[in-house]
Structure formats: structure tokens, C-alpha cells
Write a structure and sequence with these properties.
The protein has 427 residues and is α/β, with parallel strands linked by helices. 32% of the residues lie in helices and 15% in strands.
């Protein structure tokens, strides 16, 4: 049954301050270069998304002032960041958001934005374009009824489509993003039709992760074996996307060494997804100045410092929670990931996905290669919630992996779905 309770936004706690830094940076720390920054400029939001990992809604009590945020822009540029993506909450609910866009562009960095689009008016779209915002990604998570259910507000799908029209009319390059979970996994064609008609230049797809509000509604998650139908469905859309001159862009937690990897990531070195880039090529910023190696990682375990206490470069180079991908990580692999043929290339896949699900990195059941390998053995994996989440931004609970035999009456169809000869598994 689909969840119907409206997602409530918690009162965010203040940032943890004065976190320890190492006495010095290592050569590997100084060599790491954050080319891409994702900056949550406010946690305030006008939607109530049931799959929101940050539990957005209320502003943090200690969000950066305009002066502090502008100083951070300078530090990002000095650190060598090339692109800054502004996220929320909802970016336009911060009163000085256009000032921040203008400052980022003035320092020569690209500036993009992600939005749910509920209040992105024509005036806001024109203003954003006038100060140099370069592209906006609008979240579309299914056909209208499913999207509205997931976003927690009736009419949010219509509002998002209207926002795309406003952006296009303002001359703003437009993209889209979609989280794939249990309820919308068979509606990707509907989403594609909507965004192709809107004229987007790219479409990012990623799996819904067991963090934040999703832990309260675990039925929203895919089962790992659902990848057997999801990945072929995405593969079928790839040629359509090419014909529409639309880049289909798989997110960091989608795929992993299955038969569609070259189709979806053939332009990357080696033609496949590499290991987690948090703290190596990417940096995440929370609206109270907290710094993580990736914007999505759980705050409690991965915030390494705060720009109110230390300069950004010092946090980047000397905060232990940002260093984990710069270290030899082979020893942290466990479960099936430790025994995988691709272990040293993949290193357990998306750290956010694994840690949010299981409470630590190094084992990720949401892997197409793994689902196919288990299928050949007549086996599959499910995830079951074992612990609830505390109820604060970027929290997580804990799930258990249950490995079991495929039901005999479903096994033949599962093989046909994996081969693309049938579309959907048995529900």
C-alpha cells in the first residue's frame, strides 16, 4: 500500500562545531582536487517529499549569512572548484540566492541549480538567467499521480512542468532528474515523454536511497533484484534519448558493471563507472557551513569541519571524514562485494547508498552485476528494515540483506526480464 501520511519536517539541530583536523596534509590530500561542489544553500523547502534524504522543510537555525556565504564562494574558487550546483531544500527560498549565483559566476565558476519547481515563477526564472545561472535541473519522479504522491503536494507535477516552461521561455538551458524507487520504476517512459517535450538537454537517473524519510517508508525502496527490470528499461530508453538529442546521465549509484554499462557510460575512461569520488573530485556543503566529501553522505559520520571554524582548504585537506576515498579501501569491503571480480575497481560502489542502508561502507546490494550473478544461481536479495532512523536531516536507519531462492514460479520470467524478452517481473 502506498504511504499517505504527509512527511513532516524536523527542526534541524545546529551544526557540530570545532571538529578536529589532522596536524598536516599528506601529499595525497594536497593532490585531491574538488572540481565539483554541491551546496545546500538552505534546508527550507516548499515540498514534503517522502524520499528526501535531508528531511528538508525547515531552514537550519544557523544557516550562513550572506557575508559568510560570499566568503565561501571565494574559498571555493581559490580551491579550484570548476562547477557549483546549488540545491536545497529549495534554493529560491533563500532571499539572497541570486546574489550567490552572481558571485559564483563572477569568480569564473559554472553555476547550476536543482529544483522541485513548485514556486519557480517566470520572474524567478528570468532573474536567475539575468545573473548568469547556466542550467537548471527540475525533478520529475513519475507520472502525475505518482509524482504528486512522492513529492507530498498535490499539483506538484503540474508545477514542475510549468517551471520547465518558465525556464525555457527565459532562455535557460534545462535538464531533469529522477529518483527510481518501487512506485515509479515502471513509469520511466512517462517521465521521458514529459521531459523530452520540455526540451531538456540531459536527464539524470539515480536510485532512491535508504536515507532520511525513506527509512520511515521502506516500502518505497526497490528490492535489489528489481534492477533486473530497471536496467533493461533504461537501456531501452537510451536510443530514444539519443534521437531526441537528450543525454541520459546515470547517477553514481546506478548500474555497476552489468551489460548496460558501456551503453550508458561508454564515454567514461574504461567505459564504466569508477569508485566513489567523495573527497577526491567532489565536495558537499550544508547550509550551516558544514563540509562533507559528498553532499548526500550522512552528516553525523561524514561532516569533517565547518567553515565558521576553519578555512575550506584546511578542512578539505586535513579532515579525516573527507579522506576516506584517498586511502586504500580494499580492506573495508565485506559481504559479496569483498568477493566480487570487480572489487578493486568498484570498491563497493556508492558510499552513500551502502552506508545509509547497512550502517557502513563496503557492501552494496543495489548492483546490476550482483543481481545477475545471483539470478544465475537461482538466488536473489531483499532488504528489510532492522532499525528506524532518528528523524534528523541526512540520517539513516539500518537494513538487513536477506538472500533467498527465487520462487520457482517466478524464476523463468526473471530470466526473460533480465534478457529483455519480458518487461516486468512478477509483483
Amino acid at each position: 500500500m502506498r504511504p499517505r501520511r504527509v512527511a513532516l519536517a524536523p527542526v534541524p539541530p545546529p551544526a557540530r562545531r570545532s571538529l578536529p583536523l589532522a596536524d598536516s596534509a599528506r601529499p595525497v590530500d594536497r593532490a585531491a582536487q574538488p572540481l565539483y561542489a554541491v551546496w545546500e544553500v538552505t534546508l527550507r523547502c516548499d515540498l514534503a517529499c517522502r524520499h528526501c534524504s535531508s528531511r528538508a522543510g525547515r531552514a537550519r537555525p544557523d544557516e550562513l549569512t550572506t557575508a559568510e556565504a560570499l566568503d565561501l564562494v571565494e574559498q571555493l574558487a581559490d580551491l579550484g572548484v570548476v562547477e557549483v550546483t546549488l540545491i536545497g531544500g529549495e534554493v529560491y527560498l533563500r532571499e539572497d540566492w541570486l546574489v550567490l549565483v552572481e558571485a559564483i559566476r563572477r569568480r569564473g565558476m559554472d553555476c547550476t541549480m536543482v529544483t522541485g519547481g513548485r514556486g519557480l515563477t517566470a520572474e524567478r526564472a528570468r532573474a536567475a538567467r539575468s545573473v548568469g545561472l547556466m542550467s537548471v535541473s527540475v525533478s520529475i519522479d513519475g507520472a502525475p499521480a505518482t509524482h504528486d504522491m512522492l513529492r507530498g503536494v498535490m499539483g506538484s507535477h503540474e508545477a514542475a512542468v510549468t517551471a520547465m516552461r518558465h525556464l525555457a521561455e527565459a532562455g535557460m538551458p534545462l535538464s531533469a532528474n529522477t529518483q527510481i524507487g518501487r512506485y515509479n520504476r515502471r513509469e520511466l517512459s512517462d517521465v521521458f515523454g514529459t521531459i523530452a517535450q520540455a526540451g531538456v538537454h540531459s536527464w539524470q537517473l539515480q536510485l532512491t536511497v535508504a536515507g532520511g524519510r525513506v527509512v520511515d517508508h521502506p516500502q518505497m525502496l526497490l528490492e535489489p533484484y528489481h534492477l533486473l527490470e530497471v536496467m533493461p528499461a533504461i537501456g531501452r530508453l537510451k536510443p530514444e534519448a539519443e534521437r531526441a538529442d537528450l543525454r541520459l546521465w546515470p547517477g553514481n549509484n546506478l548500474g555497476y558493471f552489468g551489460p548496460f554499462e558501456d551503453l550508458l557510460r561508454g564515454e567514461l575512461p574504461g567505459g564504466h563507472r569508477g569508485s566513489c569520488g567523495a573527497g577526491r573530485t567532489a565536495i558537499g556543503i550544508e547550509s550551516n557551513g558544514a563540509i562533507k566529501g559528498c553532499p548526500s553522505l550522512p552528516s553525523h559520520e561524514y561532516v569533517g569541519g565547518n567553515v565558521r571554524d576553519d578555512r575550506l582548504r584546511a578542512i578539505w585537506e586535513r579532515a579525516e571524514p573527507l579522506r576516506f576515498t584517498r586511502n586504500d579501501r580494499r580492506g573495508e569491503l565485506w559481504g559479496r562485494c569483498a568477493q566480487c571480480y570487480y572489487a578493486e575497481d568498484c570498491l563497493g560502489g556508492c558510499s552513500w547508498t551502502a552506508h545509509s542502508l547497512l550502517g557502513r561502507r563496503g557492501n552494496n546490494p543495489f548492483c546490476h552485476h550482483r543481481a545477475l550473478s545471483l539470478l544465475r544461481q537461482g538466488r536473489r536479495e531483499r532488504v528489510v528494515r532492522a532499525e528506524a532512523a532518528p528523524g534528523v536531516p541526512f540520517d539513516h536507519g539500518r537494513f538487513q540483506i536477506v538472500e533467498e531462492d527465487w520462487p520457482a514460479e517466478e524464476l523463468e520470467r526473471a530470466f526473460l526480464v533480465a534478457q529483455g524478452r519480458e518487461r516486468w517481473l512478477v509483483d
